[in-house]
Write a structure and sequence with these properties.
204 residues; alpha+beta; 35% helix; 25% strand
C-alpha cells in the first residue's frame, strides 16, 4: 500500500510539472486577450513592473505589474491594471483599462469570479453596468496624491456624475464591490502613472 501511495504521489507531481508550462502559456494568452479587451484599439502590449520607486522591466520577483497597450503605430492607447476584492461569494479578480491622457477608465473585464449565476455574474454581462467603464472619471486631485473624486457605487439608475458607478439591481454586493476595488486601485495607481506618463508614451 505504501508503495502504491508513493507511486500515485509521484505520478501526480510529474503530471503537474508536465502540464504547468501549458497552463501558464494559456493563462498568459488569456491575459493578453483581456488586455486588448479593456484597452480599445490596442494591438500590442508591454508589461511594466512597479518596484516601489518607479516602473521598470518585469522580472521573476515582480509582484505589481501593469500592461501598456499600443496601436499599430506604437501610440499609447491605455494601461491595463489588475485589481481584486471581496464579492458576494468569493474574491473577484478584474482587469480594467485606464487612459492616462484623459484620465478615465475605458474598459473592464472579469478575470475570475465565483458569483451566483444569474445574479452576481451580471457584472460580466449586464450592458448597462459595463457601460459604466467606458469613460469613468478618475481624475487625480491637485496635489497628485489621489483622486479628485472617489469612484463610488450608486443605486441603479441614480448615476449623475462621471465618477459614479450604477449598481445592478439584484447584484448589489457584486457590482458595488467592483466600484470599490477600482476606487482603491486608482487611488493607488493614478498618480504613479501620471508622474511617469512619459515613460509609457515613449515606449514603442
Amino acid at each position: 500500500m505504501v508503495g502504491i501511495g508513493v507511486l500515485c504521489g509521484l505520478l501526480i507531481v510529474l503530471t503537474y510539472e508536465g502540464t504547468l508550462p501549458r497552463v501558464e502559456r494559456l493563462r498568459a494568452e488569456a491575459l493578453q486577450r483581456a488586455v486588448f479587451t479593456v484597452i480599445p484599439g490596442a494591438e500590442d502590449s508591454k508589461a511594466f513592473s512597479w518596484d516601489g520607486n518607479g516602473f521598470g522591466e518585469v522580472n521573476e520577483s515582480s509582484t505589481e505589474i501593469l500592461y501598456a497597450g499600443y496601436d499599430s503605430s506604437g501610440g499609447l492607447k491605455g494601461i491595463a491594471i489588475e485589481a481584486s476584492g471581496q464579492g458576494y461569494a468569493d474574491v473577484i479578480r478584474i482587469l480594467y483599462g485606464y487612459n492616462p491622457i484623459d484620465q478615465t477608465v475605458i474598459g473592464f473585464y472579469v478575470l475570475e469570479s465565483k458569483e451566483t449565476p444569474g445574479l452576481g455574474d451580471k457584472i460580466e454581462k449586464d450592458a448597462t453596468f459595463l457601460a459604466n467603464f467606458k469613460a469613468l472619471d478618475v481624475q487625480i486631485n491637485n496635489d497628485q496624491q489621489g483622486l479628485a473624486n472617489a469612484v463610488i457605487p450608486v443605486k441603479s439608475g441614480a448615476k449623475v456624475n462621471a465618477w459614479e458607478v450604477d449598481a445592478i439591481t439584484g447584484a448589489t454586493i457584486s457590482s458595488r464591490a467592483i466600484a470599490d476595488m477600482i476606487n482603491v486601485s486608482m487611488q493607488k495607481w493614478a498618480s504613479r502613472i501620471q508622474m511617469n506618463k512619459q515613460l509609457f508614451e515613449l515606449n514603442e
